[in-house]
Design brief:
Layout: H1 22-39, H2 49-69, E1 77-86, E2 94-103, E3 107-118, E4 121-129, H3 136-145, H4 149-156, H5 166-195, H6 200-222, E5 232-234, E6 237-239, E7 242-243, H7 245-270, H8 272-278, H9 300-303, H10 311-321
Antiparallel strand pairs: 1-2, 1-7, 2-3, 3-4, 5-6
Helix pairs in contact: 1-2, 2-5, 5-6, 6-7, 7-8
InterPro entries: Dual_oxidase_maturation_fac
Protein name: Dual oxidase maturation factor 2
Pfam families: DuoxA
Length: 322
């Protein structure tokens, strides 16, 4: 490979290993800027309400960021192993490498050498196959690039010609899971709007709805685990996918939304006045209502000598003059 100056023949530029998803980085930066912007107003809030508002902002933005990020993560399910496998087609060269399959609402494959540098070459690949109707075109591009055999073997399992039928399982389950996650995000936005209005009860209901749609997305993705799993065999080893970080993070977020929603609904029935005070709702609700100031009394000392003539006396006087 020195003839190409470390540039692979089918790659226009040197391939670099995957470090961090650009989409996830964008989401994190957006929510961090939003969090800083909202936390700047905290010094203007007096008393104990300041801590409550800070807790409310942090928890709310955490839930929103997780819901959006789960659409772009690549570790809803994953599997990896270290094995000896043939490296390139039409070659007997065998490398010791870590082969990984990372499944999200997209697909992500990785192959890392163990050690990374073998045969005077850096074996550190990260290839992503996006969910479209099929991945036939991306698989053909991978063949043209001359990707290592383990990656081509795994990618072939997701083509239409594969007897495993993984493309149908993962594409449909991922599509419905993504749709329900975006619905959960809409419920989260509505819940935050309702928390700023004197309708705390409905805000609690929308928080519970957010949790429900997160659970629906998990149920949609879980359908791939309810069918016989396709075994990936590379060399003398094999592996199957299992639930990973994003799946359990979705579960934790759904449970958190459920607890918050149930507590808001429960406290709204038990201590409604304190809930309105905590969320600063209903403060100006008395402006358009008849305000009762309680019972009053007249001081007889100031009323001594004050005579109040009835209105009828004026009418009588006018009539007598006529």
């Amino acid at each position: 490979m020195t003839f190409y100056d470390d540039i692979y023949p089918f790659y226009p530029l040197q391939r670099t290993s995957f470090i961090f998803s650009g989409s996830l980085l964008t989401i994190i930066l957006v929510f961090l800027v939003l969090a800083v912007s909202l936390l700047v107003i905290l010094p203007g809030i007096r008393g104990k309400s300041r801590l409550f508002w800070m807790f409310r902002i942090v928890i709310s933005l955490f839930i929103g960021a997780v819901i959006v990020a789960l659409n772009f993560t690549n570790d809803w399910a994953e599997a990896r192993m270290i094995t000896n496998a043939t490296y390139k087609s039409f070659s007997n060269a065998v490398v010791n490498a870590e082969v990984g399959l990372h499944v999200g609402l997209l697909h992500f494959f990785s192959l890392s050498g163990n050690p990374v540098v073998q045969f005077n070459e850096t074996i550190d690949y990260n290839e992503m196959f996006s969910w479209h109707d099929t991945i036939e075109e991306e698989y053909e591009e991978a063949l043209e690039k001359g990707l290592p055999n383990p990656i081509l073997y795994i990618a072939e399992k997701f083509t239409l010609s594969s007897p495993c039928g993984l493309i149908f399982r993962y594409s449909f389950s991922g599509r419905y899971a993504s749709a329900t996650l975006w619905t959960a995000f809409c419920c989260w936005v509505l819940a935050n709007i309702l928390f700023s209005m004197p309708v705390i009860l409905y805000a609690g209901y929308m928080t519970v709805a957010t949790a429900a749609f997160i659970f629906f997305s998990m149920a949609s993705f879980s359908t791939i685990m309810n069918v016989p799993q396709c075994v990936f065999s590379i060399g003398t080893d094999s592996f199957e996918t299992e639930y990973s970080h994003s799946f359990w993070l979705a579960l934790a977020t759904g449970v958190l939304c459920t607890i918050i929603g149930v507590l808001v609904v429960l406290f709204n029935f038990l201590i409604p006045e304190k809930m309105k005070e905590a969320f600063s709702s209903g403060v100006d609700s008395y402006e358009d209502e008849d305000v009762s100031y309680g019972e009053g009394y007249l001081n007889s000392v100031f009323l001594d000598g004050v005579t109040i003539s009835p209105l009828t006396s004026k009418v009588t006087t006018v009539s007598s003059l006529n």
